[in-house]
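JOB MANIFEST
job_type = single_chain_structure
chain_count = 1
residues = 811
[input]
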Amino acid sequence: MPAFAQTAPGPQPSVADTAPLPADAQETTPQAAPPEFGGDIVVTAQRREQSLLDVSGAVSAIGAERLANAQVNNLQDLQTIVPSVNFGSDFNQAKIFIRGVGANTSTTGSSTGVALHVDGAYVARAEAQLTSLFDLERVEVLRGPQGTLYGRNAVGGSINLITARPSQTLEGYARLTYGNYNQLITEAAVGGPITDAILFRIAAKTEDRDGFGVNPITGGDVDDLKRRMARAHLQFNFSETINLLLTGEFFRQDDASGAIHYLRASFPGVARLAPLGVGGYAVRPRDLASEVQPGTDTESYSFTGTFTAELSDSVRLTNITNYRDFETALFQDLDLSAVQNGFTINGQPTTVQERRIDSRQFSNELQMNYDTDFVNLVVGAYYFHERQRPIDTVGLGRRNGLPTNIAILQRDGIPLDLAYSLCGYGPESVAGTIVAPKRVCTRSNLGTEAYAAFGQANINLGALSDGLAGFTLKLGGRYSYERVDSENPSIIIRYSAAVPASNLNALPTLNPTAAGTRVERSFRDFTPELGLSWEPSDDLLLYYTYSEGFKAGSGENASGSRVIVDPETVRNHELGVKASLFERRMTITLAGYHYDLEGLQLNKTITGGPTGYTTIFQNAASTTADGFELDIFAQPARNLRLSGALSYTDARFEDYLTLDPLNPANVAGGTPYNAVTNPDPTAFGAPGSGDIQLAGNRVRNTPEWAFNLHGEYDIPLDTAGQITLMGDVSYRSRIYFSEFEREIESSAPYALVDASINYTTDNRRITAQAWVRNLADIDRASSTFAVATGRLIGVTYLPPRTYGVTLGYRF
């Protein structure tokens, strides 16, 4: 989406092909470019510096100033200014979608369809993608399969966070924001030379905010924020052509953000499948009643080393090494109610969930770039390793098991030390009482090891013949090998509503072992890319690209699971045109695409089974999509800038047989269906149960139409500085959050209006902004999820109306 800010100085990381976009990245002074426009835009597309008008590919780029003015603090905020991106979240996971491809699972373990990179380093966990954005040079959103220029393949696209780098002069900034809900955001950065050869930059940010709702039982806030983050760069310039950038990053979160709220019963009117929290739900939609306070507790460290060596005028080597340590814990009551469930309390299964994830990942990417007038060649090798050890528990409360659990485990010969180990804690004492193991504990062990070799050549055909002047041939490919393994040992104290609580002998425990659940699979694939572009003039580019994408199969953290699904593969065709008009006072980019995706990886849960819920992780046979994306920037007058983006996506299943979790006939319990003695159409096994064909249904988290309109108008002041009026209108048509196209699992069409008044001094050192987001206070879901344990549909919401002031100083 077009934006207008300059970025911080410093070396720029490599990025993939980018689409034309004014005044949002590093700038030069091209021919015939009026000074008020800001000149041509240069990025390191295809691993070299190029004008955005000279490269092929669909990309939206948002500069640092635009991010600050739009109050973009996380990836969810991006969707209001980048229509092709859709963002949701549940179970503390980011659900990022581009062109109908994204994260379709709610169990940890699988890779996301849209990759997130920070300075070229891949962030694997969807939970780790919920961190905040700070001290960025720009954000780039690449649409379509990525792989021939990136170490980690992605079937749907990539979001690249490019941080501000150290500079040769001392510089920095500080920003303070205060808004409603007692929002307080502080951000600051400082950097410059330590010596002539050593540069540094340090940045930090804090976010605090009261909740958009409350828990009327505990009195605590719901959907609040408490986050702390910092980053440090240290750059060593060994010579004019060799440097090493060392980066350390820290993130800490302890709040109740992203809480799932009660929306509706999963099976209204079906008595045998009544939700477990009836009588205890919160009255207001943004509140959440629960006997335990929901919360997220996250801590993450990342270390990156980027080595660059210019071996000659045409050869450059780059090596990016990254290590990330990520730990998070999620607490929530899956009945979304103040009702306290327990087998010995009310005959219902306990529903309090704790999910803890411990992930450590390491990656190394080595690139070589060879650049001449005839060819630009990039070749690379990539290695990635991740080991996850998530723990999922369900019990009466946070580490507060039922006393009967110990008796049941001892009766069935389950060693208590094994049970405690699987639950992730020991027999602690609370007020003199031993804390028993919970009724469900799964301690998974999930591993991924990936190797890849990739390359891309852009060949200037005009160097071969004058008749081919302006034509460039793109040839690329990627070979991928991945090995995936999983183990899901568990203890399960079975629940049955038909068994009286006093009859412990009727509650057998299950104990799937690590050895019994261990499974391993290997995957290999080659994904080519072929493109042809024609640049008849400096102001016009036409291109066609065929590309393929690959995402390896993955496991899940589910009790006793031995599932590793098949890979996803995509074949994508894209046509594009980029034009600059009226002495570059207007740019237009248009991309149309068609893709076929095989093996889409999807996750859902269905009520029933020994734990009270059963996870389904499977591949959809095939999906297809057609769409286009239009971006326009115009500067009709010196002080007026207008931009807009329009996205159309028709992404549907061609073939998908699956089970409907909200069909009561699919859920075991009660008297089974019998045409004579029990003809109840909602009884288990009634006609209409089993798999149904969803061909023609739309995919998840993807509106058919989306657009954004943005305007800026400068008012120079006679005394000093200027005032800039800014406004945004963003629209999305109906979004379905499941593949069943149900209105209850969707968000109705909506339009959001954001506005601000900015003041900047002549020297641009001091800024002040009064802003409002979601001016009309539109209330819409950002995701829904069928919570099988509580037999209900949960929902997360977009933020309500927020407003505030931001003061900034830079030097």
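[summary]
DSSP finds five helices and 47 strands in the chain.
Residues 127 and 510 are 29 Å apart (CA to CA).
exit_status = 0
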